[in-house]
Amino acid sequence: MDIVLLVKAAVMGIVEGLTEFLPISSTGHLILAGSLLGLNGDKFKVFEIAIQTGAIFAVILVYWQKIHSTVVALPRQPKARRFVLNVLIGFLPAVVLGLVFGKLIKAHLFTPLVVASTFIIGGFIILWAEKRPPGSVHIENVDDMTPWDALKVGLVQCFAMIPGTSRSGATIIGGMLLGLSRKAATDFSFFLAIPTLIGAGVYSLYKERALMSTADIPLFAVGLVFSFASAWLCVRWLLKYISTHDFIPFAWYRIAFGIVVLATAWSGAVVWAD
Fold first, then answer.
1. Residue 100 counted as domain residue
2. Residue range 32-49: average pLDDT?
3. Domain contains 273
4. Cα(168)–Cα(122) distance, rounded to whole angstroms?
5. Cα distance between residue 13 and residue 57, in whole Å
6. CB 169 within 8 A of CB 119
7. Angstrom distances, CA of residue 216 to CA of 8, 11, 83, 219, 274
8. Rounded Cα distance, 101 and 89, in Å
């Protein structure tokens, strides 16, 4: 396989890993990076979804102790069973609405105006969320969440089906607006990403399997490896960051990036649809 193509796959993997778990939308960044690198077409759309799995392995590694202890405690601890149930409940709305509206969204919402608008609107929502009064937080830890809390976060996650919204942004900021602490919202967002993104990757690969061949294995492998490495660094950094900082810088970044999306689309520098 062409070494240049593998380098481009590595760049895309890095972009995916660095943006997947920050509230800035990996989709918008991958569209921009893919177009600038000349990676267009249905196969590369599948590639962009598949390499999310590498980022998820990074989350599993970072949270391995919590995941392992929960699995071990499932037969005897109600708290462990409730945690797993909460993740499954939070995951369910995205499955249902994704299957119902997925094709419609891909056909009509992947436009520069929609992506730019959701970037900018999302930025202002983050600014609003960070102005919450201190007394609005009533859940400090993910283990304190109820199934109803998990369902509400899961419903908020569905807004991420609109390109440019950001799955992490929807779940973290949505969770904060629903009363979760910044730490609890971030942790639950990461745990919710495990079934959501693995499911999306497997489903996309199965659905578009006719586009794939054994010759594509190196391309996908490079993307997965670099996605994993960059996501591992990003997740570890974010968990340290939120202990002493808020998300306001990400809000201004989203607003600025939304303007960049409009500018690149207007100039014709980015291909948004085939």
1. yes
2. 85
3. no
4. 11
5. 13
6. no
7. 13, 16, 38, 5, 21
8. 19
Q: Quickly list DSSP for the chain.
A: --HHHHHHHHHHHHHHHHHTTTTT-HHHHHHHHHHHTT--SHHHHHHHHHTHHHHHHHHHHHTHHHHHHHHHHTTT-HHHHHHHHHHHHHHHHHHHHHHHHHHHHHHHT-SHHHHHHHHHHHHHHHHHHTT--GGG--B-SGGG--HHHHHHHHHHHGGGGSTTS-HHHHHHHHHHHTTB-HHHHHHHHHHHHHHHHHHHHHHHHHHTGGG--GGGHHHHHHHHHHHHHHHHHHHHHHHHHTTT--SHHHHHHHHHHHHHHHHHHHHT-S----
User: How high is the pLDDT of residue 7?
Assistant: 96
Containing structural domain, residue 263: 3-267
Instruction: Identify whether the C-beta of residue 74 lies closer than 8 Å to the C-beta of residue 80.
Output: yes
State how many domains the chain has.
1
* pLDDT for the residue 150: 97
* 272 falls within a domain: no
Task: Note the pLDDT of residue 117.
Answer: 93
Nearest to 239 by CA among 192, 196, 274, 190: 190
pLDDT tens for 72-114 read: 999 999 999 999 999 999 999 999 998 898 888 878 888 888 8
The neighbouring-strand residues paired with 139 are: 180
Q: Model confidence over 111-156: pLDDT tens digits?
A: 888 889 999 999 999 999 998 887 788 999 999 999 999 999 999 9
Contacts of residue 245, Cβ cutoff 8 Å, sequence gap at least 6: none
